[in-house]
Amino acid sequence: MENESPVSRSFDAEVAVHRKPDFEINSLIQDRWSPRAMTGEELPERELMTLFEAARWAPSSFNNQPWRFLYAKRNTQHWDTFLGLLADSNKVWAKDAAVLVLVVSHQNFEYNNKPSITHQFDAGAAWENLALEAASRGFVSHGMHGFDYEKARMALQIPNDYDVIAMIAIGKRGSKERLPPKLQEKEFPNDRKPLKEIVMEGKFRT
């Protein structure tokens, strides 16, 4: 229905098989997951910049916006450098991405150059915005820590006052048959821990 609220929309059929929320939430959050299979197609510049635009509007302490996104599109001069940063276990599928992104975060506040305790937390909020925007457009966005952090710093000339956080593969979703057999077995939306394990009223408990 045209006036249907985002919360009342039914979940994607593939997601609904594997995920059962205990409380009603926006289906965009529930439907977002991290496939590995991508088609190898390029992503139009406007579509890519729309994802970064979503990331730009994330909240941050003192509106510091410490995140920075370095990227390489496939079939460009930077692609091999970015792909070469990945662990072999990620190269095997990320080679079919349209874009590879490196997320870095400034350690200090710009207004006084003092350390920002929450800069990585803030960068994570920006990544989540990007991931949700990608999901809303039917794109894959898969975050990774399996890459060479020091090589990334050196190869991409990242200053020492920026932390190297993570890499992201972005692309159009492909058939899981493009993946090696072991990864095909993992190509489904996974579940989450129950709220009782992650939410604690009053004080910490194990």
Task: Please characterize this protein's 3D structure.
This protein is α+β, with helices and mostly antiparallel strands and about 210 residues long. It has a domain at about 40-175: NADH Oxidase, CATH 3.40.109. Helices cover about 35% and strands about 15% of the residues. The chain has nine helices and four strands; from the N terminus they run αααβααβαβαβαα. It has helices at about 15-20, 25-30, 45-55, 80-85, 90-95, 120-135, 150-155, 180-185, 195-200; strands at about 65-75, 100-105, 140-145, 160-170. Strands 1-2-4-3 form a four-stranded antiparallel sheet, with helices on both faces. The longest helix has 18 residues, at about 120-135.
Provide tags for this entry:
206 residues; alpha+beta; NADH Oxidase; 4 strands; globular
Write a short abstract of this structure:
This protein has 206 residues and is of the alpha+beta class.
Structural class, please?
alpha+beta
What is the count of helical runs?
9
The pLDDT mean sits at: 93
What is the CATH C level class of the domain at 40-175, in words? Alpha Beta
CATH superfamily of the domain at 40-175: NADH Oxidase
What sort of overall outline do the alpha carbons produce when their principal axes are compared? globular
Distance between the termini: 44 Å
What low-confidence regions span 5 or more consecutive residues with pLDDT below 50? 1-10
Content of β-strand: 15-25%
The CATH architecture category of the domain at 40-175 equals 3-Layer(aba) Sandwich
Name the helicity range. 25-40%
Within the CATH hierarchy, at the fold level, what is the topology of the domain at 40-175? NADH Oxidase
Q: Which sequence of SSEs, written as H and E, runs from N to C?
A: HHHEHHEHEHEHH
Largest sheet: 4 strands, antiparallel
